Amino acid sequence: MDFELSTEQKDIQEAASRFAKGEFTRELALKHEEEHSFPRDIWKKASELGFIGLHYPEEFGGQGLGVMENTLVVEEFCCRDSGIGTALALADFASEILMRHGTEDQKKKYLAKVASGRMISAGAFTEPNHGSDITRMDTRAVTKGDNRIINGTKTFITNGEIADFYIVLCQVDFEVSPSYRGMSLILVDRETEGVATQDVGTKMGIKMTSTAEISFSDVSVPLTNLVGEDGKGFYHVMEFFDESRIEIAATALGIAQGAFDRALEYAEQREQFGRRIADFQVTQHKLADMATAIEAARLIVYKSAWNFDQGRIDPRLTSMAKMFAGRTAVQVADEAIQILGGYGYITEYEVERFYRDAKIAEIYEGTREIQKNTIAGKLISKK
Ligand SMILES: Cc1cc2nc3c(=O)[nH]c(=O)nc-3n(C[C@H](O)[C@H](O)[C@H](O)COP(=O)(O)OP(=O)(O)OC[C@H]3O[C@@H](n4cnc5c(N)ncnc54)[C@H](O)[C@@H]3O)c2cc1C
Hints:
By secondary structure, the protein is of the alpha+beta class. It is 50% helix and 15% strand. The strands form 3 sheets. It has a 4-stranded mixed β-sheet with strand order 1-4-5-8. It has a 4-stranded antiparallel β-sheet with strand order 2-3-7-6, with no helix packed on it. Strands 9-10 form a two-stranded antiparallel sheet. The longest helix has 37 residues.
C-alpha cells in the first residue's frame, strides 16, 4: 500500500494550484458572482493549458490521464475559489459519456472541442416530474425516417443556457417494462430548431453556472446523434454517475479545504480578549475537527478515483465519497463562517460563498439520501 501521489500527479497538483492562484482573483470571483456569469476567459485559458478534459484520450484533445489527475485539478481549483472552480469543473459536464460511448465522428466533432475550450457541454436527465427517480422519462424521441423527433422538458440543467450541445435522456420504447429499459441518449445542438431555454431563477450558490429548463418541441435530429446503444441510455447514465460523482466529491473536497484555509488564517491573526482566537481551545477543537473530516473525505475521494482508474468501478465507494465530501464541505464551511464571526457573514471574506457553493454537492448527481440508498443497497442482502 502506498498513499503517496506520483511525481507527475504532484506536478499536476502544483500546476493547477499555481494557475488558480494567478487567475482566480477575488475581484474576478466577486464580479462573476454578482453578474451570475460564467468565467469564460479563465475557462479558455484553463482549457488551453490542458486542465479541462485531461482525462480524455490525447487524440481527442485530452492528456490521456485518469480520473485521479482530474480530481487533483478540480480540488485545487475549488480550494482557490468555490465558484470559479465549480464552474470550470462542470464546463465539460457529461462529456465523459461521449468519451466512453460516442462514435468516432461524435468524439472528433464534440469531445475534442470541449477539451480545447471551444465547446461547453451539458447532460440533460432531470425532468420537472422526475428528479431522483430517472427510471421514468416523459421526454420522448420518436423515429421518423432517418431522424428522431424529440418532445419534452428537462429542468435544472447545468450550462443549460450556455452549452453548445446537450446529451438528452429520452424514452424511445413506449411498450417495454420496466420503462428504463427503453431509454436512449441523444445528442442535441443547442441551436437546433425547437430547442428553447429558460433560466430557473436565482439560486443559493454556484451562481457562475447557468441552470436552466430546456424544452424540446418537435426537435428533429439525425439518427446518428444517438450516443451509445439504443435502449441503453439509462444504464449509460448510471455508469456515468459512477465517474461524475467522484468529480462532484472533488469539488466538495476543494471547497472544504478552501474554507478551512481561510478560517485558519483568520484565527491566527484575529485577536479578542488580548489573545489570538486560535489560542482559544474551542477554536482549536473546531479546526481539529474540520481538518480531520477533510482528511477522511480526501482518503475516500482519492480511493474512489484511484479505484476507477484501475477499472474497479465501485458505486458504493463513489456514493460514500460524494456523500461524505459533500457533508464535510457544508459542515466545514459552516464552521469557517463561525470562526470568522461577523466577517464570515460578509461576502468580501468569501467563506459565506464557499458555504453556499458547498450545499449543491449534497443535491445534484443524486441527493445525500439517494447516495445512502445506493450504499445500503450494496450492504444489505436482498430477501
Ligand atoms: C443547481 C443544480 C444543478 C443541476 N444540474 C443538473 C444537470 O446538469 N443535469 C441534470 O440532469 N440534473 C441536474 N440537476 C438536478 C438534480 O440532479 C436533482 O435536483 C436531484 O437529483 C434531485 O431531484 P429533485 O430536485 O427532483 O428532488 P426529488 O427527487 O423530488 O427529491 C426531493 C427529496 O426527496 C428525497 N428522496 C427522493 N427519493 C427518495 C428515495 N427513494 N429515498 C429517500 N429519499 C428520497 C430526496 O433525497 C430529496 O431530499 C441540478 C440541480 C440543481 C439544483
